[in-house]
Amino acid sequence: MDRKSQMLTDLSRHRLVPVVVLDAASDAGPLADALVAGGLPVAEVTFRTSAAGECIRVMAARGDMVVGAGTVLTAAQVDEAADAGASYVVSPGLSRAVVERCAERGVVALPGAVTASEVMAALELGVTTVKFFPAETSGGAAAVKALAAPFKDVRFVPTGGIGPKNLHEYLSIPAVHAVGGSWMVPRDLIAAGDFDEVQRLTAEAVALAGKEALV
Ligand code: 3PG
Description:
This protein is an alpha/beta fold. It has a single domain (3-209), classed as Alpha-Beta Barrel (TIM Barrel), CATH 3.20.20. It is 47% helix and 15% strand. The protein is built from ten helices and eight strands. The protein has helices at residues 3-14, 28-37, 52-62, 75-84, 96-105, 116-124, 140-148, 167-171, 187-191, 195-214; strands spanning 16-20, 42-46, 66-70, 88-90, 108-110, 129-132, 155-158, 179-181. Strands 5-4-3-2-1-8 form a six-stranded parallel sheet, sandwiched between helices. A two-stranded parallel sheet has the order 6-7. The longest helix is centred in the last third of the chain and has 20 residues, at 195-214. The radius of gyration is 16 Å and the shape is globular. The relative contact order is 0.16. It binds 3-phosphoglyceric acid. Residues 19, 46, 70-71, 133, 159-162, 180-183 line the site of 3-phosphoglyceric acid. The site of 3-phosphoglyceric acid has 13 residues, from strand 8.
């Protein structure tokens, strides 16, 4: 299996992608420890703060996590993410420039797509796994199911408005590759340094996703 397929397989095995906003690079280490201890060695570190690149570098250097960059809007940010060691790049929408730079840099692109036309545009760029964002306000699980019907080979990573209460709706859909969300990594808990609570929320999310796999 090539490196890109391996990365996507790792994401689907964990089933959850914590979407992280880190205000300080010094939080990256403790957050990584909490995620790993909670049983979810995965992070999508969003480029919503200036600390993102350094946080990716710290997490990727550990070697025990699947670390990606989120909220990537430009080709320059793809370079920053790849230089820091990110193995995948998530965008809220579909940008040809971002997807093409990901291919050049050998990182997996997970662009956003919530309509049939957007999915077709992604397919034309060689992308078969897309972020379905913002999930809840784009029709939720029913929309993912409807979109999956004509696109048999496409896999979705629904993100946006998902939490313990509606996680099962998404994870029970065969076309759902993994589910993204910030509920186990709240920005205020990280800023307050409450990594024990982050670990607890993470373990709880992992247990919930595990139960879902058995349904
Ligand atoms: C994202 O960028 O993917 C979202 O902000 C995550 O959505 P959530 O905070 O509603 O989980």
